[in-house]
Amino acid sequence: MKNSTLLPLISFLCFSFFLNAQTPTLVKNIYTSGGSFPENLIDFNGELIFTANDNTNGVELWISDGTEEGTQMVKDINLSGSSEPAYLEKVNNLIFFSANNVIDGRELWVSNGTLEGTVELKNIHPTGSSEPNYLTHVNGLLFFSANDGTNSRELWKSDGTEAGTTLVMDINPNGESEPEDLINFNDILFFSAEDETNGRELWKSDGTATEMVANINTNGSSSPTNFAVSNGLLFFQAKGSDGMELWKSDGTAAGTQLVKDINPMGNSAPENLTDVNGLLFFTATDGTSGIELWKSDGTEAGTILVKNINPNMGSNPAELTKADGLLYFSATDGVTGHELWKSDGSEAGTQLVKDINPQGNSNSAPNFITYYNDKIYFASTDGPHGKELWVSDGTTSNTEMVADINPVGSGDPAYLTVVGNTLFFSANDGNVGHELWMFDLTTKVTNLVQTISFEIFPNPVNDILNIKINGLDRDNYELRVYNIMGKKLLEQHLGRLDDLSHLELNVNEFPSGVYFINIINQKGIIMSDTFIKG
Hints:
Layout: E1 15-18, E2 25-28, E3 39-44, E4 47-53, E5 59-64, E6 71-75, E7 86-91, E8 94-100, E9 106-111, E10 119-122, E11 133-138, E12 141-147, E13 153-158, E14 166-169, E15 180-185, E16 188-195, E17 199-205, E18 210-214, E19 225-230, E20 233-240, E21 243-249, E22 257-260, E23 271-276, E24 279-285, E25 291-296, E26 304-307, E27 318-323, E28 326-331, E29 339-343, E30 351-354, E31 367-372, E32 375-381, E33 387-392, E34 399-403, E35 414-419, E36 422-428, E37 434-440, H1 445-448, E38 449-457, E39 464-470, E40 476-483, E41 488-496, E42 502-506, E43 513-521, E44 524-533
Antiparallel strand pairs: 1-38, 2-37, 3-4, 4-5, 5-6, 7-8, 8-9, 9-10, 11-12, 12-13, 13-14, 15-16, 16-17, 17-18, 19-20, 20-21, 21-22, 23-24, 24-25, 25-26, 27-28, 28-29, 29-30, 31-32, 32-33, 33-34, 35-36, 36-37, 38-39, 39-42, 40-41, 40-43, 43-44
């Protein structure tokens, strides 16, 4: 490796790919001696509401307009520690949430984004904590589960006033119904609850009339869960006589039916239910293929396996996300590890977008997939750079890392949330810990694409690796080579590449194996590829 040399020659080859003209920026270093760990990010009337810890007031409610001076704590709810706001839900230009001010315990709070407008809505449990959860907006009302200390955990509602925050119904008078998985379906609340007679079943409420929809399992509890609305129907997982299978409901008892017994030998356990333009995607096992991607139009015949991605043991799809009429998700085909996939609902149209982490069957593990303007943004790792912010338009060539936020480790972007034309997220640049970051999304695609050349050959290589580059703007670049374990073996300053289009890299002393080669400037990775040393 000490004899590796770079020799300038002349050559030319063109293709196009994403070159980000802008890079993510730190919004504010909230916790100056650690990380504030922003969470619960939510769009609130064009601003960002979130929770963070400034190491002085604990974990509290914050608001940001994307500027440092406009990023402020809304209110110090717990003067002696952290109020730890949770379950944030927007209803009628208000943010409802659960918080603990120590005096009254964990109760229901509401905020309009100002100090004065952030108040405890009601002390539901006067001698303890009501612990509100499953906060859900339905037709101008907030529905939630809470315990008032008298009726145990039951269904509640609120119109944003103390007087209008009331118990909807004591579903289980001799116990607690524990409402769960609340969802808005046709402006009516549907949820799972347990009464003293029928066990845990499907219920609905408009805030006044509350009733069980259907007793799916007459021998116990059907335990409906994983609700999703698609094609005018409510889909969910429930346990009937055929085990845990896919069910549907139109809101009536007669219209609550098993869609299909997908796994006749046991439970298909449908999960990750996601609507894409009226077609339901979900994950399930038929007992033969392992956990794979399925789809349903609500009929038995129209409920089918989309593709057996990993015939050996199941592809285990995760992070199912609707984007631009397609489904994006993470899956493994048994060869590439968990990578980014997409599907239009057909077998042929269910494809690997890119093997982002090509180190054997290592995972790039894409998550926090977020859609904006014909592109998805997500967190992923290519191996050498750890988990960073990536962008894709669904093609292999235009799936690129936005920036190497943490050059010495993982940026770990999380909770990606679009507010207007700004992508907010939590990340760690290795200097200030996990803080609030933003990325301006207003740059048009035409401004992100630059015609350049990048080609390496021969591949596999024994001695001299040829690298062709052309068309880059005048900037300072570096070439870096990593082994399959992510260890940097070579770093070479290249200078301004507009006058240099062909390099030769002597890899004679490299051990046999797979290597990663990156061209980098201050914006992060500009070009990346792999080669095999024979």
